[in-house]
Amino acid sequence: MEVKFSRKDDLEREIKELGPWFHNMRIGGIETAPNHFLGDYPAFKWARFKHVLPEDLEGRSVLDIGCNAGFYSLEMKKRNAGTVVAIDTDPHYLRQAEFAADHAGVEIEFRLMSVYDVAKLGQRFDLVVFMGVLYHLRHPMLALDLLYEHVVGDTMLFQCLQRGDVTIPELQHDYDFSEWRIFEQPGYPKLFFVEERFSNDPTNWFIPNKAAIEAMLRSSGFVIQQNPEREVYLVRRGQRSFAADPPPKIA
């Protein structure tokens, strides 16, 4: 007996073949990761901070770094973004993102690229989306420096996993070499180094506390404008407060 599939059956099969999905997308009414361990991710998180971006991006250029299946790229297109470039180091995620964009009928430029290679893009973007990437990097400060130097033209939407104390301490500009006790304060800026795995993920390398991530952003030249959700920041490109050595040029 011949079994006939509906268009929905075909779509469900294609979505399954492209799995596993980390972003729970809705494609043709079908959820790609309905049993995600975080819930309806990243939609539930986006709902908490989406108000910090204009409802109409008025054709602004957007760079989505670590785009995964393209949830944020698609949301920027919904807000009338102009050119959207989305990069990721995982071809599996890029295949998912291209599939989702095709079904949404939007034009997004996808590239297999590392954050360390952003200078090769050769342009600055009005908005850079840098969500959930920093703690996966072995060289987080280099990445922030490269973003500042090469691609952030105005604004960056940023998120990073945090652990540890949420206190923002009042710190002096400098301390004597003999100082020890300040480092024992729970809120002192800290990066927790993961030698093996965290959450069964070998790419979780550095997990900052709140004070550390804010200090890292400032040190890289970014000005924090809003912190609408614990891990999320809207920042703008400002002036560096010290004469930092420029990041190395990538050939």
Question: How would you portray this structure in words?
Answer:
This protein has 251 residues and is α/β, with parallel strands linked by helices. Helices cover 25% and strands 21% of the residues. Strands 5-4-3-6-7-11-10 form a seven-stranded mixed sheet, with helices on both faces. It starts with 6 loop residues before the first helix and ends in a 14-residue tail after the last strand.
Please outline the helices and strands.
Layout lengths: L6 H11 L8 E2 L2 E2 L11 H7 L12 E4 L5 H8 L5 E5 L2 H14 L4 E4 L12 E7 L8 H12 E8 L31 E3 L12 E3 L1 H10 L2 E8 L2 E6 L14
Parallel strand pairs: 3-4, 3-6, 4-5, 6-7
Antiparallel strand pairs: 1-2, 7-11, 8-9, 10-11
User: What gyration radius follows from the Cα positions, in whole Å?
Assistant: 20 Å
Structural shape: globular
Q: Give the fraction of residues assigned to helices.
A: 10-25%
Strand order of the biggest β-sheet? 5-4-3-6-7-11-10
Give the averaged pLDDT, no decimals: 93
Question: Topology as H/E string?
Answer: HEEHEHEHEEHEEEHEE
Q: Architecture, according to CATH? A: 3-Layer(aba) Sandwich
Describe the biggest sheet?
A: 7 strands, mixed
- How many structural domains can be distinguished in the coordinates? 1
> What is the terminal-to-terminal distance?
60 Å
- Percent of sequence in beta strands: 15-25%
- Which fold does the CATH topology refer to? Rossmann fold
Number of strands: 11
Decide which structural class fits the backbone: alpha/beta
Number of continuous helical runs? 6
> What ranges have pLDDT less than 50 throughout 5 or more consecutive residues?
1-5
Spell out the CATH superfamily.
Answer: Vaccinia Virus protein VP39
